[in-house]
Amino acid sequence: MTDEPRLESARLAVSRHAARLFWEKGFDATSGDDIAAAAGISTRTVWRYFRSKEACVEPVLKVSELRFAALLKQWPKTESIDQFLARSMAAFVTDDAMVRDSIAAVRILAVLHREPALRSAWLMACHEAEVELVGVVADRASRGVDDFAVRLCAASITAAMRLVDEEISSAVINDGLRVSTEEVTARIVLAIRAGAILPICDAVA
Amino acid sequence: MTDEPRLESARLAVSRHAARLFWEKGFDATSGDDIAAAAGISTRTVWRYFRSKEACVEPVLKVSELRFAALLKQWPKTESIDQFLARSMAAFVTDDAMVRDSIAAVRILAVLHREPALRSAWLMACHEAEVELVGVVADRASRGVDDFAVRLCAASITAAMRLVDEEISSAVINDGLRVSTEEVTARIVLAIRAGAILPICDAVA
DNA sequence: GCGCTCACTGTCACTAAGTGTCATATGGGG
DNA sequence: CCCCATATGACACTTAGTGACAGTGAGCGC
């Protein structure tokens, strides 16, 4: 996580500007030149970093999901998902950079219904998170990463997380609701339990 | 299905050409002009039909998933998923146009790993299929379409179907394997049962 | 039949997304 | 200090995608 290739963190930095601009001006009204100017790099470099304009937000969307996957990697086999998240979610949401990224992501998710290009970026980000989750599930279920049941389980959990994220984001941004960490945690636990085909939610060792 | 707006079927016709060209020449080597020429329409109309080049294949990818969702709509409440698919899958795969679309879709799925643009089109198509599935699940579970558990169930099933489709497509095209209708049906039943959070797989009435 | 509307398409000029290529940093190892 | 590798900028270029308007043809009242 911390020693990731510096190209990745450069991409993430640009991605934050793109996410902000898409939120402020809308996707169509934001050009590659705008993103480059905001990030203080040349337009050419924007297209070296990202294969398309919508892909510019993928790192910001991905990083929240990925950080959550990284958290799950620390999930001890002796604990249930409820126990683990109850004690670790509070600490999880203190990192400042992470909170800012989460807000940016939430704002993107809230406008998904009118921005198809952003939805495709979101789905791509979820797909990468899913790939990451396969490792976590395989480890916890003591199975291989090529096991179909493992991949199915990771896909279901990712789909469940995606729905929770979309739902909460829309509620917060579009309906002005406020939600507590506990509510979010409860929602996530429910989603993971619903999506888990394999018996990984309770203590496995 | 049959009396869909004629704009939709025009889009589908163009989409078939796009899918063929992407398969034959690759995504990057196929231009909007190529698609227009193959479909016998002006380039301008291509961009009226589709918001982007990758979106050109969405109808072909969507139609197989959607037809399957339509099949599930006929699933009687007195039958289990195993019973229903065992007797209806054979008839399902006889429609000629459908078989051709399925082959086109399978070819797209087989090259997903090297064509990120096509993956995003595929994920978008799956998302639309998911929306359609929500109705089926809601009906069978006797719940509303806004029920979170219903949407969760539809998302899980869609994710499972997506994995099955990707897996089988890659096996058939990349590894030259041959699979029978029975094997595919068994795979799908397994996936649906795995993804179904709600008790909809067995007779509900 | 006649003319009207209206949704759809083609043409063409245009903007913006995205690439190829080369020159110039930047920065670590001998 | 120089060499080599990798990252970026500059700029010309191609292709994706839009705006504006004119033409076509099917439906419909008369």
Descriptive notes:
The structure is a homodimer of 205-residue chains. With 205 residues, the first copy, chain A, is mainly alpha-helical. Chain A has a domain at 57-195: Tetracycline Repressor, domain 2 (Orthogonal Bundle), CATH 1.10.357.10. Chain A has nine helices and no strands. Chain A is globular, with a radius of gyration of 17 Å. Chain A binds chain B through residues 51-52, 54, 116-117, 119-121, 123-124, 127, 148-149, 151-152, 155-156, 158-160, 162-163, 167, 191, 194-195, 197, and chain B through 51-52, 54, 116-117, 119-121, 123-124, 127, 148-149, 151-152, 155-156, 158-160, 162-163, 167, 191, 194-195, 197. Chain A binds a DNA duplex (30 and 30 nucleotides) through helix 3.
SSE map:
The structure is a homodimer of 205-residue chains.
Chain A: H1 6-25, H2 32-39, H3 43-49, H4 58-73, H5 81-92, H6 96-110, H7 116-141, H8 148-174, H9 181-195
The structure holds a DNA duplex (30 and 30 nucleotides).
